[in-house]
Write a structure and sequence with these properties.
The chain is built from 8 helices and 8 strands, in the order E-H-E-H-E-H-E-H-E-E-H-E-H-E-H-H. With 225 residues, the protein is an alpha/beta fold. Helix 5 packs parallel to helix 6.
Length: 225
């Protein structure tokens, strides 16, 4: 299991310290929630901060783009250090083209789907993806309650990936904490994102260990050729 703390829930007055702390606590990725106030009802930060964060850590950066016209900004986020980029299926005109762009730039390509978005919308693209981001809250804010109804979708995605022997990883994002991590892992997640579940706890190391709870091994990543 890979753990990706989302810095949206960090204390921004001491961001450098927060990033170093999750690195030391055993995080695998840094999840960056990019919101534009149009696709979601909140605004966070853009490439400038991603660039600064890239200088604060050796960890890979995972940019979750909750913005309209993400294609316009892929190159910029990659330049600023994003190693993984996900965009929401509704936000692009030519999904395959968007995936190809990211892959050509050696960036891990992911598609995100909201709780109400049916899995069948992304099935045709899963074979080309490095990861599928399944949202378990409505995107926009950290600290929301996990929507258990999405578990079935995670199970169905796992099933599809395994049956077709695909390498796409399943990332689950929204309301994940030490209490529900195990059911999410059992449903088929490879990567757990957690905002409040890490940064609003006293002991980040313990929080990350609890999220990793289950014995599920680290998912293997396809090597770039
Ligand atoms: C929601 C974001 C999530 C979220 C994570 O729009 O994509 O990454 O903020 O925070 P928690 O784990 O607190 O829900
Ligand atoms: Zn996110």
């Amino acid at each position: 299991m890979k753990i990706a703390p989302s810095i949206i829930a960090a204390d921004f007055t001491k961001l450098n310290k927060e990033i170093k702390a999750i690195e030391k606590a055993g995080a695998d990725l840094v999840h960056l929630d990019i919101m534009d106030g149009v696709f979601v009802p909140n605004i966070t930060f853009g490439p400038m901060l991603v660039e600064a964060i890239n200088q604060m850590t050796e960890l890979e950066l995972d940019a979750h783009l909750m913005i309209v016209n993400p294609d316009k900004y892929f190159e910029r986020f990659i330049e600023c250090g994003a190693d993984w980029i996900s965009f929401h299926i509704e936000t692009v005109k030519n999904t395959k083209k968007s995936i190809n762009f990211l892959k050509k730039r050696r960036c891990r390509a992911g598609i995100a789907i909201n709780p109400e978005t049916p899995l069948k919308k992304v099935l045709p693209f899963i074979e080309y993806l490095d990861f599928l981001l399944i949202m378990t809250v409505r995107p926009g804010f950290y600290g929301q309650k996990f929507i258990p109804g999405v578990l079935k979708k995670i199970e169905r995605a796992r099933d599809f990936i395994d049956k077709n022997r695909l390498s796409c990883l399943i990332q689950v994002d929204g309301g994940i904490n030490g209490e529900n991590a195990e059911i999410v892992a059992n449903a088929g997640a490879d990567i757990l994102v957690a905002g409040a579940g890490v940064f609003k706890t006293k002991d980040y190391k313990k929080a990350i260990e609890n999220l990793r709870c289950c014995e599920k091994e680290q998912p293997s990543l396809v090597k770039f050729s």
